Request: fold
Amino acid sequence: MMTHLWFKARSYGWGWTPVTIEGWLVLLAFLAALFISAGVFGYCLRMGADVRIATVVFVLWIAFLAGALIVVAWLTGERPRWRWGS
Reply:
């Protein structure tokens, strides 16, 4: 078990909130990867790539990024559960 948590369970709902610099850096890297991916997707479409194939690849890549973020939050944060406040 980690000595300090990067992500804290949310007070309302299900999920995490970054609470350390490491957690914020992971979230920032995730957002940067999303923006870069959107730019590459747009560039591919302008260069004449097949729209269906490019869209499928883009959606799968975004699903992979989201999954990776969830795995990191799960391994470095509190166990999430549905919460209705403190």
In short: The chain is about 60% helix and 10% strand. The mean pLDDT is 93.
